[in-house]
Amino acid sequence: MKNIKFLTSACKYCRYYKPEGRRGGNCQQLGAPVLGSWKACSLALPPFAPSWETLEEVWILPQSKPVLASAILQNAILVKKSQMAMLQAKESALQSAELTETKTLVV
Question: Which residues contact 85 (CB under 8 A, 6 or more apart)?
């Protein structure tokens, strides 16, 4: 089979061109303002690529690690227990502070 080479001749035909206003747009690949009539750069891709196979070869995703719901639940329980302990410590500190204030007022 013959390879078909799709060329993007101008910025306005590129996948990364985002029109803004009446006069031009932005190149999302370069992050710069461009005019749609400008000659396309070497990074240009047609808006509808003929095949995603070449991009899939470039994007190599790391292996995913399975996560058990029980491990997530255990971590959530530990966090909740530590939060409760902190709240109890604050409450006891406030109660002791209130008791010392009332003792000084009574004397």
Answer: none
